[in-house]
Design brief:
single chain, mainly beta, Elongation Factor Tu (Ef-tu), domain 3, elongated
Length: about 775
């Protein structure tokens, strides 16, 4: 037996006394005080062959002794399992190669001393214990000379644990298997890949159709993989393959991509989501992507299709970010996109499953036939304004109008009773903060620098959008959200003028407050969207709008309209305290030019400052009804301050009509002046109603006792709201609060059941 050293034979004090004048005193003293100083043995003292038998014999003989075990240079064959206990420090000599055969596992639970050279070969498993904190890729033969294929060596190293990849260009490729299935270098649970230099540790996909790094795409996976990390790397995808992501993450809980360059992907820089082919329900949760630079990626820099709790901070993007649940079981939520720079790209939050039947919630509900009240098992994840479906109960979509404990009030009655029915929701994209980002020079974007679609509970605050084509922020069916304190600006010559908007709202319910919008054709548009109900299922009508608050914005347009409000809704839009200017100085004879342009019902327009050569200060178009306009300051317009083409609009406290009103809906207590110049009201409405005759008596309807749902033969002649009607055979006057297809929802229930009864307007009563 050859003993290497045994410092433990000496008493520490004696050794120090005997070496006072030794020039190596400090070194010897440190060795004595080092708790890892051990007796060393050679494995060949316990056998004559370089193999598992010799190593296992040495481990058995040494037992529990705290010591070192040396493997000398040569080719060691590991063809059966070896477990090095934590009391033994394994020392591998320069020139030693350990070939671990398939089916064998080398487990190293103790400390490890190893040269910076290739040590491990084979297709077996190497299991490093906690005392080996970082594994160097060079131990597995990684070269990084830009010509050697390092795919296998990097894969072997990454499976072993936390690895450090040295400087150099490490070529990787994988061409076998189905497209996008198997990353070139695959990770397992609790592993980190770290480069020694962000710009000089390069993984380059030289060919193949697979992602460079990631989790294998396993459609049959039943549990998530935990704790996957990437740091200080340059990862280059194969730009010629539509599946070659730089990093492909799926069914993972806890992942981080930090301080990396991610470029040249044939698809995405970082793709996050579960396999779509099998509809795998496993999410990708709790991720961080921070301080990375993305460039020349073919589709998106980051694409998230299924997961929660993603933090995207301080990155540089070119293509941008796409948050997009793409299956009926997918969900994206609690996402923060903060302080990033986007050059020529966009942020998109887009729910592609607009035609599905909802995402299943873990709750059930019970409802009676002809009732709009449902008792649910748990209402904590439901909110007023959301849309739900109830299995086997129609209509297909209900809007939640009130929640009281576990009792949920819906906007319409159920057709049949349902007991313990599954509840589904249609908003699969929610709880996103987009704050402090700089988006600039985005050319040829169709929808907006920030595009938001079918989502809820968003905060779009304090972003800067400079010189981007199309809209600045574009949102469609977005609810319960804030768009505040953004700067959306561009050089007026940046693109041709058409219908481009600083902020565009379509069928949405949000607060738009404190934004600076300069250089667009229209500052803010709150509009109806298109008339294609099949495209926008489960939202049944193209005229669906909720209340928006548009206030305290500073708007300088180089086009024709400051704020354009074109909605038909049962909830008003508030346009208040905005500063609106037109910077174009040429003569303006376009009568569509207006500081505030309104084609809507129930808008409140107050406290705004409007100046510049708009043709109109405020234009109330013919569709404008029930608007309130007061305390606005209008200066320097070309034509009129106001036009009042609509009906039942209240301007500076009063309504106006040259004769007793014969059009519009009037509410008890309304006062009407004969002219804007007369100071005393002439008519007072003493009974609410709608003027005129409905469809010459051709409209009929059916309703049940105790129901507020009226089925109409036609809705011709009816406006979307505020129609007062009578129903032959039913007592009283009714107000229509919502129209949906040929269904009218009334403000109260009927006291009789009628079928195909005559429907007429209930006219108002005026007194002088």
């Amino acid at each position: 037996m050859s003993q290497i050293v045994n410092l433990n034979e000496f008493n520490a004090n004696d050794l120090i006394e005997a070496t006072k004048h030794n020039e190596n005193f400090s070194t010897i003293k440190n060795a004595v005080n080092d708790i890892n100083s051990k007796i060393g043995y050679s494995a060949l003292d316990y056998g004559s062959t370089l193999d598992s038998t010799t190593i296992n014999s040495a481990i058995s003989s040494l037992g529990a002794e705290i010591c070192m075990l040396l493997l000398t240079q040569g080719n060691w064959s590991i063809d059966s399992n070896i477990t090095v206990p934590d009391n033994i420090e394994l020392v591998i000599q320069q020139g030693a190669i350990l070939t671990v055969s398939y089916g064998a596992t080398l487990t190293i639970n103790g400390a490890l001393k190893i040269p910076l050279a290739k040590v491990f070969e084979g297709t077996g498993i190497i299991d490093f214990g906690k005392k080996v904190e970082k594994i160097k890729a060079c131990w597995f033969g990684t070269v990084g000379d830009s010509s050697t294929d390092d795919t296998q060596s990097l894969s072997n190293a990454s499976i072993a644990g936390n690895i450090i990849i040295p400087k150099g260009t490490h070529n990787v490729q994988k061409t076998d298997g189905e497209n996008g299935k198997e990353p070139c270098v695959q990770q397992v649970e609790n592993t980190t890949i770290i480069g020694t230099d962000k710009n000089e540790t390069i993984l380059d996909a030289i060919s193949g159709s697979q992602p460079v790094l990631g989790i294998p795409n396993d459609n049959e996976a039943t549990q998530v993989v935990k704790n996957i990390n990437y740091k200080n790397l340059t990862v280059k995808g194969n730009s010629g393959s539509s599946y070659s992501d730089c990093i492909h993450i799926q069914y993972t809980d806890g992942y981080k991509v930090e301080n990396c360059n991610l470029q040249d992907a044939g698809r995405d820089g970082v793709y996050i989501g579960s396999p779509l082919q099998a509809g795998n329900p496993l999410q990708c949760d709790n991720g961080i992507i921070e301080n990375c630079k993305f460039s020349n990626n073919d589709r998106w820099d980051i694409s998230l299709i299924h997961g929660e709790n993603l933090y995207i901070n301080n990155n540089q993007f070119e293509a941008g970010v796409d948050i997009e649940p793409t299956t009926s079981t997918a969900y994206c939520g609690n996402i923060k996109i903060l302080n990033n720079i986007i050059n020529a790209g966009m942020l998109q939050l887009y729910n592609t499953k607009r035609n599905n039947d909802g995402t299943v919630l873990n709750i059930t509900g019970t409802i009676s036939a002809a009732s709009n009240s449902i008792t649910v098992s748990d209402a904590s994840n439901l909110e007023v304004g959301e849309f739900i479906a109830i299995t086997d109960v129609t209509p297909d979509v209900f809007e939640i109008t009130a929640i009281n404990g576990t009792t949920v009030t819906l906007d319409k009655n159920a057709d049949v009773a349902g007991t313990n029915k599954t509840i589904k929701t249609f908003l699969q994209l929610r709880d996103v903060d987009i704050k402090g980002n700089l988006i600039k020079n985005a050319n040829s974007i169709s929808y907006g620098a920030i595009r938001l679609f079918l989502s809820t509970h968003l905060n779009i605050n304090e972003n800067r959008i400079y010189n981007c084509d199309g809209d600045g922020i574009s949102m469609d069916r977005v609810t319960h959200s804030n768009i505040c304190n953004n700067k959306i600006m561009r050089d007026p010559s940046h693109s041709s003028y058409g219908e481009d908007y600083g902020i565009r709202l379509t069928r949405s319910q949000n607060k738009v407050i404190g934004n600076t919008i300069w250089g667009y054709s229209t500052g803010i548009r709150n509009g109806r969207g298109v008339n294609a109900t099949s495209e926008y299922q489960p939202y049944q009508t193209a005229d669906y709008d909720l209340q928006n608050i548009i206030s305290n914005n500073h708007i300088k347009v180089h086009g024709n309209i400051g704020i354009w409000n074109e909605t038909q809704s049962d909830k008003s839009t508030v346009i208040a305290n905005n500063i609106i200017e037109r910077t174009k100085t040429d003569e303006n004879i376009d009568t569509n030019s207006a500081g505030i342009y309104v084609k809507s019902v129930g808008a409140v327009i107050t406290g705004n400052q409007i100046k510049g050569n708009f043709y109109y200060g405020i234009r109330l178009y013919s569709e404008s009804e029930d608007c309130i306009v007061n305390d606005n300051n209008i200066n320097g317009v070309v034509g009129s301050y106001f036009t009042d083409a609509g009906v039942h609009n209240k301007i500076n406290g009063y309504y106006y009509s040259a004769t007793e009103p014969t059009v519009g809906t009037w509410i008890e207590g309304d006062l009407v002046k004969e002219s804007i110049n007369y100071g005393t009201p002439k008519w007072s409405c003493t009974q609410s109603g709608t003027c005129g005759t409905l469809n010459s008596g051709a409209t009929t309807g059916s309703i049940d006792t105790g129901s507020n749902v009226l089925t109409l033969s036609t809705i011709d002649g009816l406006r979307p709201l505020r129609n007062f009607i009578t129903i032959a055979g039913v007592t009283g006057s009714f107000e229509i609060i919502k129209l949906e297809d040929n269904i009218a929802y009334l403000n109260k229930t009927a006291d009789a059941t009628v079928v195909d009864a005559s429907i007429a307007f209930s006219n108002p009563t005026f007194t002088l």
